[in-house]
Structure formats: C-alpha cells, structure tokens
Specification:
Blueprint lengths: L1 H5 L3 E4 L6 E7 L5 H13 L8 E6 L4 H8 L2 H4 L6 E5 H14 L15
Parallel strand pairs: 2-3, 3-4
Antiparallel strand pairs: 1-2
Length: 116
C-alpha cells in the first residue's frame, strides 16, 4: 500500500503538520483509472479522510475519459471522497491568481470540476 501511495504526484499537508489535506494525480498520458485508484487507496488509509480533497489534473482532450471513469458505478455507489478534476488549460489560465490569492489547498476548488 505504501508503494501505491508513494506514486501519488502531489500530497498537500496542512501547514506545520503531517496531516494530509489534499492529493493530486496528474494524468497527461497514463491511465485515468490508475490515478483514481491511487487517490482512493490513499483516503482509505487515512483517519478523517472525508476532509481530504482529491483532484485529477489532465489535458482538456481527456475530459470525456475522466468523466466516464468518475461515473463508474463502483465510484458513484461508494460513500467515498469525491474526486474533482482540473484541466490543464484552467491551471494555465488561473495560475497567477492562484499564486497571488491562494492561502491553502482550498483555492483549487474554485477551478475544479466535479461530476457529483
């Protein structure tokens, strides 16, 4: 399990603690589903995981694939953390604002999309 979690691209910790508050998988060319599984594995190992924000970041041409994977019955039926996604174009468009006005991981909620 630790190996799988170690493959997560970005893990965001609460300032001055070891508490995980957010995780990001960047899926430019690798499997969207494998990124979803890694994020799900992470939250299943954490206490208070309902407070962890999960994100996939990918190019806009993969948006349909992301939506299809996030609509899988095994993910929708499960009482788990929602996984939002951020398109690369949105990151590029809002990069300066995120850097200027972001105090913590919650700034990403403003550009992320969610299917449920």
């Amino acid at each position: 399990m630790k190996r799988t979690i170690a493959l997560i691209d970005i893990i965001w910790f609460e300032r001055d603690t070891n508490k995980i508050v957010s995780a990001f998988e960047v899926e430019k060319s690798t499997s969207i589903y494998s990124g979803i599984l890694r994020l799900t594995d992470l939250v299943l190992t954490l206490p208070n995981s309902e407070k962890v924000s999960l994100y996939l970041a990918a190019p806009e041409q993969r948006e349909k694939e992301i939506i299809a994977q996030l609509k899988r019955p095994s993910l929708v039926a499960k009482e788990s953390n929602k996984i939002s996604y951020i398109l690369f174009s949105e990151l590029c468009t809002h990069c300066d604002s995120i850097c200027k006005f972001g105090d913590d991981h919650t700034i990403m909620e403003k550009i992320a999309k969610c299917i449920r």
